[in-house]
Design goal:
185 residues; alpha/beta; Nucleotidyltransferase, domain 5; 2 domains; 5-stranded mixed sheet; two-stranded antiparallel ribbon; 7 strands; 45% helix; elongated
């Protein structure tokens, strides 16, 4: 078989499957997302429609506009749920046809992560202080009034090494790290 014969066979089979998909009346949940055939090229955008219950592709159409989505939604009047990302074109099309809109899993997780992060930021103090010697220093080196206080005295270094039970190699690495940090202040 030649490449052209194989391509014709695939196109014919795909066209039959597409006709079958577009005449189905049992799709209850449609999921939609956009893909780009060429990375970074907005003009190569396509919209993929899936039967969310079977996870099978229903149709792939060129364009990521509201018109592209509404044209496909007309073919699936029995669908009651519409899973989508945050694209406003998808939202408007689903609203036009009275579909119940559901956020996709990725965006639900992102929203939950953002909510947790926002909640933690309200509980965290604006400035964090570190205990050093007899006082406290801001954790941010730029906000420290006197940078010379960041130096660890030699007797404290040896006490810390002894209390941490560091090996001679670990102790040497610790000393070198403190010297590097001291040079940075």
């Amino acid at each position: 078989m030649s490449n052209d014969t194989i391509a014709r066979y695939i196109k014919a089979t795909a066209a039959q499957q597409l006709d079958t998909n577009l005449t189905r009346n049992d799709v209850r949940v449609i999921a939609v997302d956009d893909i780009y055939l060429r990375k970074g090229d907005q003009s190569s955008g396509c919209t993929v429609f899936l039967d969310e219950e079977t996870h099978r592709v229903l149709i792939l159409v060129r364009g990521t506009t509201q018109a592209a989505v509404t044209a496909v939604l007309e073919s699936f009047p029995a669908a009651t749920f519409f899973g989508r990302d945050r694209a406003s074109a998808y939202s408007a099309a689903a609203e036009q046809y009275g579909k119940i809109q559901v956020a996709d899993r990725l965006h639900l997780i992102e929203n939950a992560h953002q909510a947790v992060q926002d909640a933690l930021m309200t509980l965290m103090p604006a400035t964090i202080f570190l205990r050093t010697g007899a006082g406290w220093l801001p954790a941010d080196p730029a906000s420290r009034p006197d940078r010379a206080e960041c130096r660890v005295p030699d007797d404290q270094v040896e006490d810390r090494i002894r209390l941490a039970h560091l090996t001679p190699r670990q102790a040497q690495k610790y000393r070198h790290t403190l010297k590097i940090l001291e040079l940075g202040t």
